[in-house]
């Protein structure tokens, strides 16, 4: 997972890139067999223990999901925590600190 | 022996309690966004209806997608809104087998702005919907897809 959080003006801009196949379950593999759906269903981002962004995803989100959002405040050095869960129950988490402008 | 058993029971109960706490917190965190059932809609109309009130077209909602894309598997999409008190943002793709692509909860202090990359099955409109004070507002933009991305 790559997380970049940067203070810009009055807000902090957060970019999250998660490595995940985001398999739709609709396609066929090279042998013509069907592939199981495997996709992230939920991503949550917190700043100092407060949830600043929570999102539900579907199979329509591209492989290696990229999510960007902005929240007001956030000081350089503050911790940003990202957690995700997929439809198989697999989980992931990552952390970053807010960078100066 | 009795002591050992009650200690084990206590540990088991403590374990169950903490699992319940974690699950409870998890549900609470995601309760703000729509239920997962919304994602099962198989037509744009059904998906829009499932959001509750019918979204009203608004110039205060903006959806940015490229007007032409080569590969429908990776299409950058940004939705934002100048409407105050937005608490949720939805992205829907007209011709996808399951139109609802993303449902974001926007807590107080977070801007009405989400940028991501979506798979588009073919040429059609991408709809951005925002919810503010219980009402829904929408804008859509068409994008031409050379090669569909729902595989």
What does this structure look like?
The complex is a heterodimer of chains A (101) and B (151). Chain A is mostly beta strands. Helices cover 0% and strands 51% of the residues of chain A. Chain A is built from no helices and seven strands. Chain A has strands spanning 2-8, 11-17, 40-47, 50-57, 66-72, 79-86, 91-97. Chain A has a four-stranded antiparallel β-sheet, with no helix packed on it. In chain A, strands 1-2-5 form a three-stranded antiparallel β-sheet, with no helix packed on it. Chain A is elongated and about 50 Å long. The two termini of chain A are 22 Å apart. With 151 residues, chain B is α+β, with helices and mostly antiparallel strands. Chain B is built from two helices and nine strands; from the N terminus they run ααβββββββββ. In chain B, strands 1, 3, 5, 6, 8 and 9 form a six-stranded mixed β-sheet that branches. Chain B has a three-stranded antiparallel β-sheet with strand order 2-4-7, with no helix packed on it. Chain B is globular. The termini of chain B are far apart. The model of chain B is unreliable at 16-34 (pLDDT under 50). The interface between A and B is medium-sized, with 31 and 36 residues.
Question: Biggest interface and its residues per chain?
Answer: A-B, 31 and 36 residues
Mean pLDDT of chain B: 84
Q: So how many helices of chain A?
A: 0
Total number of β-strand segments of chain A? 7
Number of helices of chain B: 2
Radius of gyration of chain A: 16 Å
Structural class of chain A: mainly beta
Beta-strand percentage of chain A? over 45%
| Rg of chain B, Cα atoms, Å | 21 Å
The largest sheet of chain B is: 6 strands, mixed
Shape of chain B: globular
How do the helices and strands follow one another from N- to C-terminus of chain B? HHEEEEEEEEE
User: How many beta-strand runs of chain B?
Assistant: 9
Distance between the termini of chain B: 60 Å
What proportion of the residues of chain B is helical, as a percent range?
Answer: 10-25%
Which structural class do the helices and strands of chain B define? alpha+beta
Tell me about the largest β-sheet of chain A. 4 strands, antiparallel
- Name the strands of the widest sheet of chain A in spatial order: 4-3-6-7
